[in-house]
């Protein structure tokens, strides 16, 4: 996580400066990058930045190191609630943003030679868009998963599942029609006590609801319709 003291010093009153977001985003890539087509389309402002970052990383042959840095940044932003508040502060001065960018680079282990990620953070800061960093990381992750031929499977359970159970699920689903030929399954376990028991499995845009709460809801609806 980032140093709380250094980040807290960054929150001071100032008037935010507006600038052209899309023109700055395009600065990641030269005209030659028009030939680089991401394997999947992502939308929204954060998707625009993520797409530009991907094309720039491909051209500069830094895709692996960029993906590693973005994964680290995503982990930092996701776990540090105080950082999220600071990134959304509308009153950061130029000096504040420079300090935050430096702290982010240090915490994510961005090499001094990696201009691609540095340019991303600098552009977000200059355009008062540090608040969407988490979204950019997530969208970039989607692009990378598609480029690796990964299919994401999210398994939601009332309690955390052990590795043995997750491995069994992964093996079973990998052999099913839900996963295309030559695709790799990427499994994530989410915990939601509200489902009571059972599982909710999401594969791509498909959802298999085997939760107890869903069964209870269907039973209640059946009783209501009957009565």
Automatic annotation (TrEMBL):
<dbReference type="InterPro" id="IPR026015">
    <property type="entry name" value="ATP_synth_OSCP/delta_N_sf"/>
</dbReference>
<keyword id="KW-0066">ATP synthesis</keyword>
<keyword id="KW-0472">Membrane</keyword>
<dbReference type="Pfam" id="PF00213">
    <property type="entry name" value="OSCP"/>
</dbReference>
<dbReference type="GO" id="GO:0046933">
    <property type="term" value="F:proton-transporting ATP synthase activity, rotational mechanism"/>
</dbReference>
<dbReference type="GO" id="GO:0045259">
    <property type="term" value="C:proton-transporting ATP synthase complex"/>
</dbReference>
<protein>
    <recommendedName>
        <fullName>ATP synthase subunit 5, mitochondrial</fullName>
    </recommendedName>
</protein>
<dbReference type="GO" id="GO:0005743">
    <property type="term" value="C:mitochondrial inner membrane"/>
</dbReference>
<keyword id="KW-0375">Hydrogen ion transport</keyword>
<keyword id="KW-0406">Ion transport</keyword>
<keyword id="KW-0813">Transport</keyword>
<dbReference type="InterPro" id="IPR020781">
    <property type="entry name" value="ATPase_OSCP/d_CS"/>
</dbReference>
<comment type="similarity">
    <text>Belongs to the ATPase delta chain family.</text>
</comment>
<dbReference type="InterPro" id="IPR000711">
    <property type="entry name" value="ATPase_OSCP/dsu"/>
</dbReference>
């Amino acid at each position: 996580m980032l140093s709380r003291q250094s980040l807290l010093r960054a929150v001071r009153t100032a008037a935010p400066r507006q600038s052209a977001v899309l023109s700055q985003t395009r600065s990641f890539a030269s005209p030659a990058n028009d030939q680089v087509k991401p394997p999947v389309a992502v939308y929204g402002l954060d998707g625009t930045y993520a797409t530009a970052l991907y094309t720039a990383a491909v051209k500069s042959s830094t895709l692996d190191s960029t993906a590693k840095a973005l994964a680290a940044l995503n982990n930092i932003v996701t776990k540090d609630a105080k950082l999220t508040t600071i990134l959304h502060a509308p009153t950061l001065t130029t000096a504040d943003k420079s300090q935050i960018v430096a702290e982010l680079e240090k915490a994510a282990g961005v090499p001094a030679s990696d201009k691609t990620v540095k340019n991303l953070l600098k552009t977000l800061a200059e355009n008062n868009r540090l608040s969407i960093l988490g979204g950019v990381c997530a969208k970039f992750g989607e692009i990378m998963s598609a480029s690796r031929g990964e299919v994401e499977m999210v398994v939601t359970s009332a309690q955390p599942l052990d590795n043995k159970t997750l491995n069994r699920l992964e093996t079973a689903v990998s052999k099913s029609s839900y996963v295309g030929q030559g695709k790799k399954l990427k499994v994530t376990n989410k915990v939601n006590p509200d489902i009571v028991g059972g599982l909710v499995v999401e594969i791509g845009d498909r959802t298999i609801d085997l939760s107890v709460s869903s069964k209870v809801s269907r039973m209640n609806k059946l009783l209501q319709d009957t009565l």
